[in-house]
Amino acid sequence: MAQPHVVIVGGGFGGLYAAKALARDPVWVTLVDRRNHHLFQPLLYQVATAGLNPGDIAAPIRHVLRRQRNTTVLLADATSVDLANRRLLLSDGTLDYDHLILAAGATHSYFGQDAWATHAPGLKSIEDALEIRRRVFLAYERAERETDPAAQAAWLTFVVIGAGPTGVEMAGALAEIARHALSQEFRHIDPGRARVILLEGAGAVLPPYPDPLRERAREQLQALGVEVRTGSRVTAIDEGGVTLAAERIASRTVVWAAGVQGAPIARSLGVPLDRAGRVRVQADLTLPGHPEVQVIGDLAFLEQDGQPVPGVCPAAIQQGRHAAENVRRALRGQPPAPFRYVDKGSFATIGRGAAVGDVYGRLRLSGAPAWLAWLGIHIFFLIGFRNRAVTLFQWAYSYVTWRRGVRLITGERPEAPAPPQG
Amino acid sequence: MAQPHVVIVGGGFGGLYAAKALARDPVWVTLVDRRNHHLFQPLLYQVATAGLNPGDIAAPIRHVLRRQRNTTVLLADATSVDLANRRLLLSDGTLDYDHLILAAGATHSYFGQDAWATHAPGLKSIEDALEIRRRVFLAYERAERETDPAAQAAWLTFVVIGAGPTGVEMAGALAEIARHALSQEFRHIDPGRARVILLEGAGAVLPPYPDPLRERAREQLQALGVEVRTGSRVTAIDEGGVTLAAERIASRTVVWAAGVQGAPIARSLGVPLDRAGRVRVQADLTLPGHPEVQVIGDLAFLEQDGQPVPGVCPAAIQQGRHAAENVRRALRGQPPAPFRYVDKGSFATIGRGAAVGDVYGRLRLSGAPAWLAWLGIHIFFLIGFRNRAVTLFQWAYSYVTWRRGVRLITGERPEAPAPPQG
């Protein structure tokens, strides 16, 4: 029991890989998360668009770590850090640590316009995904029963704000639902007439990708029927639609994929945060003056060669492993080592057989080869064999049939579109 | 358009089979449901116990009926029937009918003790199942963090009230979770120590089954570790547990599987209802004086050979088909024909490889043969191939590994156990 206590906050990719990396070290590990499940966020848009079930992309954290005898998983809400006393405060208790790895992730940011959240839910949790799913499929139901053409058109207009990977994936999936999944099913509307509009403030879709890939992505989105509008700044969102600088889009279903901000616990550290509320860590992932505290994943802000390390799964995984290595170094009396992100490539999927990606910044793929690579990588990294096998099976079935079987509208009565549920 | 308009209320087994049976008849069919999905209720307990995903046991109604060109599916809340004017009132409109088939089903009944609903949720909808799932797995999390032994024991005590098929299945699945699914995963509790108590007011489990099968069912439940208490009348339920005539059971997780009552729309008919709020239909399923109105499934009460026709799927399916035949008879100018329920047998599952059943009242099975028969029948009747294939696959995987992968606690923060969510 005299072994050092490593406390990890967050069971996302960063926290989970840090915990796994410490499995055989002479430490006690406690992993704290508000949720009982690890979530495979890259596939969350598939839940939002009824391609996958929530259970297909989530695994109970304590199940993943069950064989790791030095590790305890705690379902608890970590609220703040007392750096001076090396203590993590929970909403219902405290945990003293020798080493702290903060991997609490990020939430949506509406750039100060919190009222937009009601009208344009983001996509970070299972609840978010189910709420978006509910809104999307309820919109078609409403359109079917609406007799006023303008009101019907608003129900059949879907707006995605933000053309990063999540926004591109959502827009592509929404277009596929309209063109394929719902054909034959309605009597008063033609779902194929639905509009899917992807708005991006920057000048291109997938801003961080190389130029030729961005162009391929735009072409593939347009081929799916998505209206891509870059350089479009949103000035207002309300129940009836989205307002741009010089235009109003009437839409009853808006999805927010534009901004993220660091989890609130970062503010309790009393250290400098960046504009998005992320912790500015040192090159070795620690806080200045606190080599025992590391911040990783989406909650960390770190520049490398003049560029921020991106908020993607591979970066979180690499940082999680590096944080574990820094703990080991401390056990040996060594100072923490600097972290170096290795970009092995990135892929964004657009639709069935449509994707773009680059590998090690050299090999650039688009279309079916990129999509197959994307599929393989995502299945491979899905945590837990059950999910991997079941998800692949469901996917294969959906691929052959174009069906989206998980089209449940749950959580409340159809009359009143309101809070997130089931 | 001059074809008769058949309005069906409810997309459960009765309503769906009535609609399917009318696919080729010269009528217009409108199927109205508050939900967009047909639900395979016999497997709902598997969602509540994390064996299956919601999407595995539900199929969008309009997808099931998409090729049936004479049929419109409407997501709407039917509130009452105006028999005199042959009009169905929706919460947001009306539908005139020539023939009405009421298949609105049943909800829980707490025998007038509505306050019990908060502490002992029932199992009728996806939301119910997710709420029970949330409570069950949250209870283990709470127990893991609880230091007071009595409080911990209450979190590790699960009470199921009512030993009909649903109650027996729930109790068996809860016992399997405790003994197998969670082993190795906790550090401060032994989930295998959890108690599962099945309470039944009558003198035996599965009251409608033949005696030897009830005895087999009790033995199999006890072999799984379920404490079976028959002749136990519940007098109170609150947050801390269940009160019996001469005993108090401290439990934080109580599931209600005891009583059902007909959907509220039955009360708008102004016809005699039975004690459980079901419509007393004539032998031909119609209302007295209204041959154009039929009531089927769980909402109907009908005696045959001195016994009530049971509220099970095969009865609803047979009645749905019979209602369609009565509509066809009316088109030909014939009076409605009397309905006759053919009992092809019934099965109740208890756990992995454990079940009881009888076939045509002659062949009685228990143990593994009954379980395999139960599995085959249920997979066969699951609506929609996707569900059938995926569900069988998931099941096979769970069977081999004992895992319950869909153990998500979603819907709200772990701190405050409260309203049903996703």
Task: Characterise the protein shown here.
- The structure is a homodimer of 422-residue chains.
- Helix content of chain A is 31%, strand content 26%.
- With 422 residues, chain A is an alpha/beta fold.
- In chain A, the strands form nine sheets. Chain A has a six-stranded mixed beta sheet, with helices on one face. In chain A, strands 13-12-11-17 form a four-stranded parallel beta sheet.
- In chain A, strand 6 and strand 7 (87-90) form a beta hairpin.
- In chain A, helix 1 (13-21) runs parallel beside helix 9 and helix 5 (126-145) packs antiparallel against helix 6 (149-155).
- The first copy, chain A, is elongated.
- Mean pLDDT of chain A is 89; it is low at 413-422.
- Chains A and B meet through strand 4, strand 5, helix 5 and helix 11 of A and strand 4, strand 5, helix 5 and helix 11 of B.
